């Protein structure tokens, strides 16, 4: 690991000021992703600014019902909080589906949103990777891509987002609060991360040095009966090969509103807007759910090694929506 300078931030403004204008500085929260990447040589910061001690570790409910989650809240505390367990169970389920208990006790919400892909080519510095070294190529397209993107990828990159939590937060229109050198900024989580396009090395739509200080979940009545389901290649401690966060509002057998986000199928948590549109006013039946998933998958571009994800995410969507509607498949 490259030698680095360690600083402990005492306030948000000071942390942001210390980062300003430098691309060799990183914020350190729980370190469960960043430190791993430093050991691999993927990340080589000259300075680490430890923000884990900042007063950003509370979860509050606003008077109008929004839940504001501090960026330094540990994942395990998030999953256990009554406002999350009762109001947004899919979020709690997503956290509990990720990593191990030890990692959840260490990892922070802000760090979770900033974590980088686990694509094997990205994590191996002996291999080319456009995300790590722009212009070097994307060997995954012709190589091992069995767990990479079928939606939203490009010729330059088909890496997937690894976060379970971000999928559930995306389904419920979470808003990220940022501290920047010019003041606070807010951006919807759906716009927070970028699709790779021709510049996969640029992963977010926020300026370098911006610090995630909180995530806000707006009120959503249907979220109280939401669900997160994850499919993985072994029983525990594995990243998803497909996942879904979903909620339904069904009235007299007809769908009045739905929320659907998919994980492990795209470079970002994938909000299935076309599927949601297809379900509006449709009967709450497995046939409707399958048609809606199919509408979303019309823009998929699977490769030979990951084409199985087409059936996987379609079947997973039908299964979870059928359970939410109270029906039988």
Q: What is the helix tally?
A: 13
pLDDT below 50 for ≥5 consecutive residues: which ranges?
none
Whole-number mean pLDDT: 96
Distance between the termini: 52 Å
In terms of DSSP E residues, the strand content is 15-25%
Structural class: alpha+beta
What proportion of the residues is helical, as a percent range? 25-40%
- β-strand number: 12
Radius of gyration: 20 Å
Strand order of the largest sheet: 4-5-8-6-7
**How would a crystallographer describe the biggest sheet?**
5 strands, antiparallel
Globally, the shape reads globular
SSE arrangement, N to C:
EHEHEEEHHHHHHHEEHEEEEEHHH
Please tell me about this protein's structure.
This protein is α+β, with helices and mostly antiparallel strands. 31% of the residues lie in helices and 21% in strands. The chain is built from 13 helices and 12 strands. It has helices at 12-19, 34-40, 75-80, 82-87, 89-97, 101-106, 109-114, 120-123, 164-171, 189-192, 273-279, 286-297, 308-325; strands at 5-8, 25-28, 47-50, 59-61, 67-70, 175-180, 183-188, 211-217, 227-232, 240-251, 254-263, 270-271. It has a 5-stranded antiparallel beta sheet. The chain has a 4-stranded antiparallel beta sheet with strand order 9-10-11-12. Strand 4 and strand 5 (67-70) form a beta hairpin. Helix 11 (273-279) runs antiparallel to helix 12 and helix 12 runs antiparallel to helix 13 (308-325). The longest helix is centred in the last third of the chain and has 18 residues, at 308-325. It is globular. The mean pLDDT is 96.
